Amino acid sequence: MTEQFSSSPDGLDSAAEHLRNGHLIAFPTETVYGLGADARSDSAVARIYEAKQRPSFNPLIVHVADVAAAKALVMWSDEAEALAEAFWPGPLTLVLPLREGAGISKLVTAGLDTLAVRVPAAPLARDLLARAAVPVAAPSANRSGQISPTRAAHVLEGLSGRIDGVVMGGPCTVGLESTILGLAGRPTLLRPGGVTREALAQVLGRSVAERHATDGITAPGQTRSHYAPKAQVRLNAVEFAAGEARLGFGPVDCDLNLSDAEDLTEAASNLFEYLHRLDATGAAHIAVSPIPHLGLGVAINDRLSRAAADR
Ligand code: TXA
Ligand code: MG
């Protein structure tokens, strides 16, 4: 049975207690809904992989309530400090050397000697993490390979009956997963997301390397086909064909418009919800307008190209 927890203090207390008892609880962050489990418990973390049917080589992000809790898990650095000050709480995940004795399950790191950590900004997430007072491993709360959830209803659609509970918060404000920055060596963008590469470089005072598909184990284990709707997805559509569900951007005639005003922040927050909605119509094809490849557009195009990849 999947219990629905309200966002009241009592609801959050029960959800936090479930987390401490090794149960799986989905909760809203500002990026997407996460599927949380106590990151120190092998059995709890194993259940995440089982519920999501996720390939076990893919490591997980650990969520904590504040910087102090993060420092207890990883080897901190001046660059981590500067970035945390600028972007935490918020949609940035830092990958740092795992601290010895941190007590994190090896299923979280998939055997790597680094750990991905983040302090989410959504007040509900922070409140829940503070009440749980354990590090919480949380991938996006969807079945592996499917569209990421930005509404509690999306979580229930994909995972109802497979997880212990969901905190019923509102829609996610950012709507795209966090930016993942590798800081174990030279700063490297492992996944574009809610914080742009330019913004990171500005705080660091040096450039941020791009990861290359050939980089292997240090790169996030993102499969090329990911975030996939059931429909086939066609990108950079300047004209739409008959029978295609039309996902527009800017002043175009379409079924759903990511942003009439060509606002990339608005487009990011609508992206997964609109893919869900167009997919739910049963359309065989979804065509998407071109999205400018700058700022948040880089992360939007990353998710769209995965949605369109061969599977
Ligand atoms: O916004 C987000 O980051 C959401 C919310 C719930 O916080 N979480 C999320 O988790 O997107 P997930 O599991 O869907 O994606 C985690 C990514 C994966 O691509 C994984 O390979 C990468 O993080 N990752 C985790 N630990 C890593 C590590 N030690 N080194 C490199 N990549 C890592
Ligand atoms: Mg995911």
Short note summarizing the structure:
The chain has 311 residues and is of the alpha/beta class.
Write the layout of secondary structure elements.
Layout: E1 3-5, H1 9-20, E2 25-28, E3 33-38, H2 42-52, E4 61-63, H3 67-71, H4 78-87, E5 92-97, H5 106-109, E6 114-118, H6 123-132, E7 136-137, H7 152-159, E8 165-167, E9 179-182, E10 188-191, H8 197-204, E11 209-210, E12 232-234, E13 245-248, E14 256-257, H9 264-280, E15 285-288, H10 296-308
Parallel strand pairs: 1-8, 2-8, 4-6, 5-9, 10-11, 12-15, 13-14, 13-15
Antiparallel strand pairs: 2-3, 3-7, 4-7, 5-6, 9-10
Helix pairs in contact: 1-6, 9-10
Bound molecules: threonylcarbamoyladenylate and magnesium ion.
Structural features, described:
It is a single chain. The chain is α/β, with parallel strands linked by helices and about 300 residues long. The chain folds into two domains: about 5-210, DHBP synthase; about 230-305, no CATH class. Helix content is about 30%, strand content about 20%. The strands form two sheets. Strands 1-8-2-3-7-4-6-5-9-10-11 form an eleven-stranded mixed beta sheet, sandwiched between helices. The longest helix has 17 residues, at about 265-280. It is globular, with a radius of gyration of 19 Å. The protein starts with a strand and ends with a helix. The model is unreliable at about 215-220 (pLDDT under 50). Magnesium ion binds near residues 139 and 148.
